Amino acid sequence: MVHTLVLLLYVMLWTPCYSADLDEITTGACSCSNSTQEEVLEACHCSGATLSLIPPDINDGVVHVLSISQANIEEIKDDTFLPYNLTLRDITITYVKNLRTVQKNVFRKLPEIQSITISQAPNLTRFPDHLFSAANTLKVLRISHTGLQNMPAFSQLGANRIMHLVDFESNQLKELTTNSVRLRTEQLLLDYNDIRFIEASAFDGCQIGKLSLRGNKMLTTLSPDTFKGIQTLRDLDLSQTSITHLPTIGLEELEVLRLVDTYTLKIIPSIYDLKSLQLARLTYSFHCCAFKYPALHDPARHAKHQAFLTQAHELCDEKNLNTKSKRQTMGNFEFGAIVGSSNENVVSSSEKQHFAFPNYLLTSDKIQFRDGDSMIKWSGDVQPPSPTDSEQEDEEVFHQGPAMMPQAKLQALCGNLSVEREPINCEPVPDALNPCEDIMGYEWLRISVWLVISTALIGNTAVLVVLLSTRSETSVPRFLMCHLAFADLCMAIYLLLLAVTDLRSTGYYFNYAFDWQRGLGCQVAGFMTVFASQLSIFTLSLLTVERWFAIRHALYTNKMNLQLAAKIMVVGYAYAILSAAFPLFGISGYSSTSICLPMDTGDTASVAYILLLLAFTGFAFFLICACYAQIYFSLNYETRHCPGERTLARKMTLLVGTNFACWAPIAFFSLTAVAGYPLIDVTRSKILLVFFYPINSCANPYLYAILTAQYRKDFINLLARYGLCTKCAQEYKMVYQQPKSAQTSLPRLLHTDSVRTAEVAV
């Protein structure tokens, strides 16, 4: 009986460990299973808060993949993995919040190790120097979400063979010092750290295919020699950083550049510095314009390149080379169009066939020509290749597939040179809101805007000077016209800001686009134009209502007084300031276009904001139309057909017409854009901006003040105070002092008020 119980207990305890039918083995807090891919691998996982050290006897020492998670391990010692050193390939340690120390030789004597991952260890702040140096077979190294503040030394990492991935994402790295990174890897990821600056030659001697520094928002400074000495770099990601300058030394072979959400970078490097660039993902569309128009972006480098082409022609003519190949026509150096996200216009360099003369090879900025044993060198874009036994004199070399530098190829055939350049696939592509053009776009528009500015500035300044200098009692119409002139003067200043900036940046606006659109200038200009337009509309409406009330209720004693008008204008100023302030706080925006108008409709709030402005403008227009219609039809038939009232009707029509010409086109095209069917792009909208948008600002001072008899009287009196036009001032004084008849019929009173309205307000 006792023997039977012992036998049963033995079977219960040991049978699971050796059963051929089960592929999972349990040892303490660890469990193992077979992983069958190309070969059978033993994968073991250990976890639990009670796990303070890694067991030395997991699966009888046969472990290929080992993962540790949510353990209470504080230190990983040198001999931790020795029991598995003959088989261990993959180590993953995650969610070990108490881990503080990793000893120096822990990964030594692991001849099969290929992947090491340490993640979610916030108290792990440093690694011993050369911790991974002995791991000669290592392919993948991931250190993420730890407290690591400095890059560990990588003296021999990747020395025997190039690693696949080195990932130090989401740690607390502060800086990269000179020679702090020494390794060979296809990918080095340093994303989402706290890196603030990178010193010169930080990657000197490295061979890195892709380098990513994405998400280092505190990264502001890159030394001019940051990438000096780096080899084989093809892909660079500096997205979501705060750099203000991108150094180009070491980026000659760069093919992919990512600078998404890098709002602080003002000017992109010249395409002549990024000779191999094929794909660019940037923040601003005007940076893509720089790639499209290299001659405007960097005139000095472009001139140097053109000089190189001229020298190349002269050298070929001098040598008078003869070849049996077809002659090719030399064309201007063109970069072609910018290619967007669609690939239908993108031709891979490997799909093209290129011819190159044996004695020339395009590389950097030198050209060298082989003539026997002698060599001629001069500044340019080519240098000779090393000679090979297969090269035959006067024979061309055919390259099927990509050459050393597929983006820029120099062909020297029969004394003719041609340079080809692949179009760069660049995003964001310049669009309708931000085309590759100057602020004004057209030359004739650049001239016209100065005529409009002069008219508005002179007219509104003249109105303000005269009305504010007069000594007569301030009336409500005079008070309102002062505010109307102030609003229209602000509109003229907005156009002046645009015109001056256009004058400074003509021909290469995209070099100034960042400072203008993202700087204070565009914010001030945008605020000023919205404030001016809304205040002008409000004041015009109030002025029209005041005139309507004065004529329709001519005998009513409680007319609008100056105090009430001032209170209403306070409301008008508050509305105008509030309307102009919304884009400063992210509702629409002034930086979306070069003309600084709130044309961004990317979200619901922005659409609602634009619709509110349009609704207020539409309401004001119909109110003005209704008031002037009632003013006109309030006169009887005989009065409407007298010469004075026909003049009044013409002036009313002119006032309504100018308002319609100013507001209707803007409202129509704005509504179609908000509805998702834009009928006009920014280039053509600039015509509206110059000739329609400021119509009221130009016309109002003349229609409401300068062309009226009252203004002429005030102007002559102002001149007379300084000893000018005294005779005319005396004549005006005598006319206005003539006694008026006390007995005036109601139709006559209406007629007098109408004439006064035509001269003062209408």
Please give the count of helices: 17
- The beta-strand count equals 25
> What share of residues is helical?
25-40%
Please tell me the CATH architecture of the largest domain by its name.
Up-down Bundle
Output mean pLDDT. 75
What name is given to the CATH topology of the largest domain?
Answer: Rhopdopsin 7-helix transmembrane proteins
Spatial strand arrangement across the major sheet: 1-2-3-4-6-8-9-10-12-14-16-17-18-25
Task: Note the topology.
Blueprint: H1 2-18, E1 24-27, E2 30-36, E3 40-48, E4 65-71, E5 75-76, E6 90-94, E7 101-102, E8 115-121, E9 140-146, E10 163-167, E11 175-176, E12 184-189, E13 197-198, E14 207-212, E15 221-222, E16 235-237, E17 256-258, E18 279-281, H2 285-292, H3 294-297, H4 299-319, E19 353-356, E20 366-371, E21 374-379, E22 397-400, E23 408-413, E24 416-421, E25 425-427, H5 443-469, H6 476-505, H7 513-517, H8 520-552, H9 562-581, H10 604-633, H11 637-640, H12 643-674, H13 682-691, H14 695-706, H15 709-720, H16 726-736, H17 746-760
Parallel strand pairs: 3-4, 4-6, 5-7, 6-8, 8-9, 9-10, 10-12, 11-13, 12-14, 13-15, 14-16, 16-17, 17-18, 18-25
Antiparallel strand pairs: 1-2, 2-3, 19-22, 20-21, 23-24
Helix pairs in contact: 5-6, 5-13, 5-14, 5-15, 6-8, 6-14, 8-9, 8-10, 10-12, 12-14, 12-17, 15-16
Signal peptide: 1-19
Keywords: Cell membrane, G-protein coupled receptor, Leucine-rich repeat, Membrane, Receptor, Repeat, Signal, Transducer, Transmembrane, Transmembrane helix
Membrane topology: Multi-pass membrane protein
